[in-house]
Amino acid sequence: MWDLQQTCRLYAVTDRKLMGDLHFYDAIEEALQGGITMLQLREKHLSEAEYIHVAKQVHELTKRYGVPLIVNDLPQVALVSGAEGVHVGQSDAEIEDARALLGEGKIIGATAHNLEEALAAEAAGADYLGVGAAFGSTTKLDARPIDREEYRRICDAVSIPVVAIGGITADNMEELYGRGLSGVAVIGGIFGTSDVKGAAAHMRSLAEPLAMDLV
Q1: Where is 75: in which H helix or E strand?
Q2: How many CA atoms lie within 13 Å of 106's alpha carbon, on the beta-carbon side?
Q3: What letter would DSSP give residue 172?
Q4: How many domains in the chain?
Q5: Which CATH number belongs to the domain containing residue 14 in this structure?
Q6: What 3-state class would DSSP assign to 202?
Q7: What is residue 147's three-state secondary structure?
Q8: How far is Cα 3 from Cα 7, in angstroms, rounded to an integer?
Q9: Which residues contact 205 (CB under 8 A, 6 or more apart)?
Q10: Tens of pLDDT along 100-152?
């Protein structure tokens, strides 16, 4: 069983478009070497068969570093690839269907944008929440920033880990301290840099103070 309060600390999310000249798998391994604690594979452009193939390859890397692999949106890909879990949208049906397919041993994360959605996702069986957008988003241009106090309200109301996502960088992460968050999800702040390993290590050091909120 994973201790998600710790495992969610630095949650890297892949985006192939941001990786530049660095090979996809090399970038992921550098992020793992830098200290990410969870990895979400988000490859929406792939067919299901291609997605499964990539997920299996990535899973070989994440297992080597003892980091859980989460597949975005597709429970079937998570099941076949052997990934540790899936991240789905905020609807009850998505969460419940994922649990029915994957069983109790897998991690199911869900998206939430406010307190109402967070409570509904927890009630439906989510193991952790991805809540945002913290600072807008470079990957979802229509994402609205969430009020900082809303993070505190959500963290106080639910008993599962809450991860902030959306536009989080080394320059703004400290604004999230003191909100009760278990971790941060980072995309461009890791994979959009020229030094993925160094960026991951720096972001990990900045994410560690979040644990002080959980004591």
Answers
A1: helix 75-81
A2: 27
A3: T
A4: 1
A5: 3.20.20.70
A6: helix
A7: coil
A8: 6
A9: none
A10: 999 999 999 999 999 999 999 999 999 999 999 999 765 555 567 888 899 99
